[in-house]
Amino acid sequence: METTDLVLAILHHLLAFSLAGIIAAEFVLVREGMSARTLRRLAGIDRHYGLIALLVIIVGAARVVYGLKGWEFYVYNWVFWAKMAAFAAVGLLSIVPTIRFLAWRRSAAADPAFQVPQGELATVRAYVRAQAALFFLIPTFAAAMARGYGL
Ligand code: HEM
Predict the structure, then answer these.
(1) Looking at the domain assignment, is residue 124 inside a domain?
(2) What pLDDT, in 10s, does the model give residues 67-76?
(3) Which of 35, 48, 117, 118 is 20 to 30 A removed from 74 (C-alpha atoms)?
């Protein structure tokens, strides 16, 4: 139904932009000299990353099943699977930062003067940068698959 398709498309876009916003926030916040407050905030933002990623999967799957084009349009399209692979890769790259954010928050709660070790900071920054770079591929593939490329 057209209304279902429209509502799912709106939700999908809002969620996708929220996810981009969260990655951008992490990109900006993960810096040298983070305060205990920033470390708490980062862990909080990161929890929303997980929640929104889950909602994107649910709404995305609903678009495949209930979208106007029908599920066959997507499952036989390699660009759709490239988009799924990019999304999965971004998700996998988020695991290390999530583990670190939780550990940093714990350390900052135990010791307000806690400073993130340089090595850990460099690693997490590299992961967040890689996530941001790969994320750009997702809307690129999305636009191509929506127009029938990859069939
Ligand atoms: C499991 C995850 C996802 C699934 C199953 C999924 C599925 C879909 C489907 C079925 C469409 C409809 C395309 C059409 O009109 O034929 C779509 C469009 C779109 N998706 Fe996703 N998606 C997912 C994740 C994401 C993410 C993380 C982003 C982030 C940028 C994203 C961005 C878009 C955009 C921008 C469109 C609109 C493309 C256009 O109409 O030009 N999707 N997606």
Answers:
(1) yes
(2) 999 999 999 9
(3) 48
What are 73-129's pLDDT values in tens digits?
999 999 999 999 999 999 999 999 999 999 999 999 999 899 999 999 999 999 999
User: Which of 18, 83, 90, 131 has most ligand 1 atoms within 8 Å of its beta carbon, as the pocket-test mutant?
Assistant: 83
Give the Cβ contact number of residue 117 at 10 Å: 11
Structural domains counted in the chain: 1
Only one residue has tokens 């971004």, namely 90
- Measured in Å, residue 73 CA sits from the centre of ligand 1 at 13
> Where does ligand 1 bind, in terms of residues with CB under 6 Å?
12, 16, 19, 56-57, 60-61, 63-64, 67, 69, 74, 87, 138-139, 142-143, 146
Amino acid found at 84 = M
Per the domain annotation, does 41 fall within a domain? yes
Domain that holds residue 97: 2-146
